């Protein structure tokens, strides 16, 4: 794995990440807290994997899903002994983590990015999953469990919706970094095994199956024309941004060895997530265990 902090994406927040990693290393016990949503589960699993790799004493605490959280259980966490790290993926982006004694609140962080190919600065937000992945790498750069789930570092950007504009520098830089280090492959949808298509409105399933059969015999221009014709009904709908449809058709993120591409994994899990509090907590715990053991959701 390549160090995420070595990329210019993390330049402005690297000191925060290293400070959190140092506090975790020095702590006798760490309490990891997150809401029982998919966003919280994937972020928490990054940190938990690094603690397991380091044989660190820790405790996992899942709060109600964000839509059910009335603050009651947050009050109970103030009595915990040890270093308390609460992951808050649904907060608005902040300029830095909130560190108060033995309590750390991890929010999405606003960043300004300088790109060598651009004459202007770009702004974005690094989601909690990627931040936790960077902390985990700092704690356990050679950890087996950390390495196994590294591809999911980009899932926070995908889940939060990085496609409302024509270009999201955080998502693009994370995607390119994970591809370069070998954590992800990027493939057009006809080359992906078992992609879920019901996330794309008005998608012509039969036409897609015919395209898959003829894909290998087509040249680049023929493929481009065929995909344009395929997605035309979807582009007429306002349910998904054009950039998201383009990503789903041309840049499917594939974890090497996984049975399903990442977008399909995230869509399927979110769709099946329980709505009531107790079931959501149990489900989140199982998802975290699965991520840590297999690297997939």
Task: Please give a structural write-up.
By secondary structure, the protein is of the alpha/beta class. It has two domains: 210 residues, inorganic pyrophosphatase (n-terminal core) (Alpha-Beta Complex); 69 residues, no CATH class. It contains twelve helices and nine strands. α1 packs across α4, α2 runs parallel beside α4 and α2 crosses α12. It is globular and about 60 Å long. The two termini are 20 Å apart. 40% of the residues are buried.
| Series of H and E elements | HEHEHEEEEEHHHHEHHHEHH
In the CATH hierarchy, the architecture of the largest domain is Alpha-Beta Complex
How many domains? The number is 2
What is the C-level CATH assignment of the largest domain?
Alpha Beta
Count of helix runs: 12
Largest sheet descriptor: 5 strands, mixed
* Helix content bin: 40-55%
How many distinct beta strands? 9
Which class best fits the helix and strand makeup?
alpha/beta
CATH topology of the largest domain: inorganic pyrophosphatase (n-terminal core)
* Mean pLDDT over all positions: 91
Instruction: Name the poorly predicted regions.
Output: none
Q: If strands are numbered along the chain, what order do they take across the biggest sheet? A: 2-1-3-5-4
Note the beta-strand portion: 5-15%
- In whole angstroms, the N-to-C terminal distance is 20 Å
Radius of gyration (CA) equals 20 Å
């Amino acid at each position: 794995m390549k160090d995420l902090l070595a990329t210019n994406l993390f330049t402005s927040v690297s000191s925060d990440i290293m400070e959190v990693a140092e506090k975790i290393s020095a702590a006798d016990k760490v309490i990891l807290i997150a809401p029982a949503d998919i966003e919280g589960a994937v972020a928490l699993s990054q940190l938990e994997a690094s603690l397991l790799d380091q044989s660190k004493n820790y405790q996992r605490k899942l709060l109600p899903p964000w839509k059910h959280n009335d603050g009651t259980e947050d009050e109970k966490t103030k009595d915990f002994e040890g270093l308390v790290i609460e992951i808050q993926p649904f907060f608005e982006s902040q300029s830095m983590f909130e560190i108060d004694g033995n309590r750390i609140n991890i929010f999405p962080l606003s960043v300004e990015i300088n790109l060598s190919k651009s004459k202007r600065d770009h702004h974005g937000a690094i989601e909690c999953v990627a931040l936790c992945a960077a902390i985990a790498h700092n704690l356990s750069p050679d950890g087996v469990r950390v390495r196994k789930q590294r591809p999911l570092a980009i899932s926070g950007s995908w889940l939060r919706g990085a496609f409302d504009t024509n270009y999201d520098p955080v998502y693009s830089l994370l995607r390119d970094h994970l591809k370069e280090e070998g954590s992800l492959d990027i493939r057009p949808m006809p080359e992906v095994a078992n992609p879920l298509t019901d996330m794309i409105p008005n998608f012509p399933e039969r036409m897609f199956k015919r395209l898959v059969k003829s894909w290998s015999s087509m040249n680049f221009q023929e493929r481009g024309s065929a995909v344009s014709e395929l997605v035309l009904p979807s582009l007429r709908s306002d349910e998904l941004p054009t950039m998201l449809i383009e990503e789903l058709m041309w840049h499917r993120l594939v974890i090497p060895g996984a049975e399903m591409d990442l977008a399909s994994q995230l869509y399927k899990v979110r769709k099946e997530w329980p709505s009531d509090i107790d079931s959501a907590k149990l489900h989140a715990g199982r998802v975290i265990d699965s991520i840590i053991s297999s690297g997939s959701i």
